[in-house]
């Protein structure tokens, strides 16, 4: 059994920040990630970030992980944490074999989020992808998913991935959204509209057809009660259907360890109950990033920092009060205004915060 101070699970923006703070405070830290590189979702984000300089606005997502040197952190890649037990032990699988059991005094779970899917006829045909999967294929692996794409979902991810498909020379036949307006930022929608891609609001996908893979998609208009408008069905010729219909927290390890979980749709699904320092109902088990509620890389980074500081304090570091206070304020600032409205509503429902 390997023993150390802290296990950080997930090497996206949240986990990297938590690991860096904890190791800077003198703790031995093991950072584990399934991927072959640290960075999580950032590894496929070739676009420039919005927001403030402090949160890497103007920087491409792929360039952000290297801004956090982790010299003192032990890093284990291509490895999955598969269990968290009551005695503080975690089990990790590395490349098909049990690597080790790890016992730590504290844990930060920063496992991020996964894509939601849609039920429709033919959704199991090859050629139906999550938008995030397409982004990984294109931007991380250099592989195009197809030649003619239908994007389902006009939130930021659907719009950004549509634009990146166009940049890669792929035809985006249309972007659909069931809502009466687009959910993403206007700036992203305008870019693809200028390129001639129709954005069809109040529309849905009904079916995908093809012999061995997607050859056609059937789409239809929907009314204000989300029922299909009779006679509005039509077929479009595509070889790829990309679903961008939301993300939900990757929370399996929290369920396994017995953390109290609450269903909050505004935060993406079941999220852990936690105090304002991000400590769950299990002592010294902290959470940060999308696993707490689907949000953005900027807030994931600040949450990672907060979890790292607060866990350091629990484990005996002194003099962190002001830094913790400032970090909580920073999170509040990030969530101000229209953009943070849904998250604020979700957090209010979650309650606690003390
Ligand atoms: C297309 C797209 C565009 C985006 N654009 C922006 C933007 O412009 N600005 C912005 O601020 N945000 C943006 N975001 C959101 C942002 O990327 C996420 O909010 C952020 O990456 C969340 O960080 P995280 O550390 O919580 O999780 P992630 O980045 O998802 O990292 C989680 C990590 O945990 C690992 N993991 C999961 N389970 C295990 C396990 N059991 N064992 C080991 N490892 C595990 C995964 O491999 C992954 O590396 C975008 C997201 C997408 C998909």
Automatic annotation (TrEMBL):
FAD/NAD(P)-binding domain residues: 5-304
Top-rank taxon, per record: Bacteria
UniProt KW keywords: Oxidoreductase
Signal peptide interval: none
UniProt entry tagged with the keyword Oxidoreductase: yes
GO molecular function, one term: oxidoreductase activity
Matching Pfam families: Pyr_redox_2
Protein name: Sarcosine oxidase subunit alpha
